[in-house]
UniProtKB/TrEMBL annotation:
GO molecular function, one term: DNA binding
Protein name: LysR family transcriptional regulator
Claim: S-adenosyl-L-methionine is one of the keywords in the record: no
One Gene Ontology CC term in the entry: cytosol
Chain segments annotated as transmembrane: none
CDD domains the record matches: PBP2_LTTR_substrate (cd05466)
């Protein structure tokens, strides 16, 4: 088997049609068809089933694609490492970090990374969730570390879980809402949320569980950690917090944790990258550092 044939098969699997795969590979459709026919002839099995709606993999094709992705990635990684060795250039690594994840895992991972690659050109950007996904898609980031909601995950991204954290609701200490224990009674409060507007429906559904409660009318989304804390201390505001961040404000007497008749969903901290992204040696080691520094209960 030739690497080009494997690349063609993977492109078809990811894009669903021969035409789309041909465009991605800068080949003609007949060339793509010929490559697959030659591969099927070499292996003696049918890899694709063609129909008017496109193509789908046979079980043989699915098995080969799983292995082919690994082969292609390793070859590309080897070529990249050889190129770095030839140019003797300092490695460049660009990492996106979500606002909530900046204080968890990443600092330890960066310290370990610097010990091995002290001369690396390291770029770390703190971003909103939507910017993280966009940056991975367009290649601005080699990888990202972020608290992940279901709405953030797309087909082209791979997410490696690094642990999960609990969340709580909070109100200003001494606020009348502090005594409230019923979720339904909090609907008229001004809510403060720390993720994306798109993830609010899923969060509220998880919070309500089997109950059917309409979402609060007043929900402000704020992803600035400093501004979030200031807004959360205003009277009449119910805010959503990661417990690892809320604990400090509770200890200082600025906020009070609500004990309500509902369970907030846990958030997963994930290492994210494109499935087709080929890691350099530096990116691979940083990923290992992040996994080593994963969250613990």
């Amino acid at each position: 088997m030739k690497t080009r044939q494997l690349q063609t098969l993977v492109a078809i699997a990811e894009r669903g049609t021969l035409m789309a795969a041909a465009d991605a590979l800068n080949l003609s459709q007949p060339a793509v068809t010929k490559s697959i026919k030659e591969l099927e002839s070499q292996l003696g099995v049918q890899l694709l089933v063609r129909s008017g709606a496109g193509v789908r993999l046979t079980p043989f094709g699915e098995a080969l694609v799983r292995r082919a992705r690994t082969v292609i990635a390793e070859i590309a990684r080897a070529e990249q490492e050889l190129e770095e060795m030839k140019t003797s250039a300092d490695p460049v690594l660009s990492v996106g970090v979500s606002l909530l994840a900046a204080s968890a895992v990443v600092p330890r991972a960066l310290r370990a990374f610097r010990q091995r690659f002290p001369d690396a050109q390291l770029n770390v950007y703190e971003c909103q969730p939507a910017q993280i996904v966009d940056g991975l898609r367009d290649g601005s980031f080699d990888l990202c570390v972020a608290f992940v909601a279901d709405t953030d995950v797309t087909a082209e991204l791979r997410v490696t879980p690094l642990g999960s954290v609990t969340q709580s609701l909070a109100v200003p200490a001494g606020d009348a809402l502090q005594k409230e224990t019923r979720l339904a009674a909090l609907r008229d409060a001004h809510w403060l949320y720390n993720h994306t507007r798109e993830s609010v429906p899923a969060f509220w559904a998880a919070l309500c569980g089997a109950r059917e409660l309409a979402r609060p009318q007043r929900i402000s989304v704020c992803t600035s950690q400093r501004l979030y804390a200031e807004l959360a201390c205003e009277r009449g505001v119910t805010s959503v917090w990661l417990d690892l961040l809320l604990n400090d404000y509770v200890e200082r007497g600025a906020l009070a944790r609500l004990d309500i008749d509902a369970s907030l969903p846990r958030l997963t901290l994930g290492l994210m990258h494109r499935k087709d992204r080929v890691f350099s040696a530096a990116a691979q080691y940083f990923a290992e550092c992040v996994e080593e520094a994963r969250l613990t209960e």
